[in-house]
Amino acid sequence: QVQLVESGGGLVQPGESLRLSCAASGSIFTLVLMGWYRRAPGKQRELVATITSGGSTNYADSVKGRFTISRDVAKNTVYLQMNSLKPEDTAVYYCNTRNSLGVNSWGQGTQVTVSS
Q: What is the Cα 36 distance to its own chain's centre?
């Protein structure tokens, strides 16, 4: 079992920034992939960004240039720096990891609300 603890969500105004964190613990082995997904009200969950153990990143087109994903391998933690936030970024953000055994794990989610 891999446990994921997310933090950093909140309420911000358009144009402001937030940083999400997700710390993994438990039967981690090697986390080959870490990432963030989100689910907006009335919509399906969608990929936001992922990062591999080698540092390769992938972003949804809607967040490219505004969001940056990074990871601290020693701390088994992944971050999502979100700049220039827009109302359409409002969603519950979920951390996701996949370890070397192929086990896929999800965090409990953290709410991000962008509103004036």
A: 3
For residue 37, what is the enclosing H or E element?
A: strand 31-39
Q: What is the mean pLDDT of the chain?
A: 95
Whether the CA torsion 83, 20, 114, 44 is positive or negative: it is positive
User: Quick one: DSSP state of residue 27?
Assistant: S
**Exposed, middle or buried: residue 43 (CB in 10 Å: 0-12, 13-18, 19+)?**
exposed
pLDDT tens digits for 55-90?
A: 999 999 999 999 999 999 889 999 999 999 999 999
DSSP code string of 65-108: TTEEEEEETTTTEEEEEE-S--GGG-EEEEEEEEETT--EEE--
**Placement of tokens 């969608």 in the chain:** 46
Q: Are 22 and 95 in contact (CB under 8 A)?
A: yes
pLDDT reading at 101 higher than 90? no
**DSSP letter, residue 43:** S
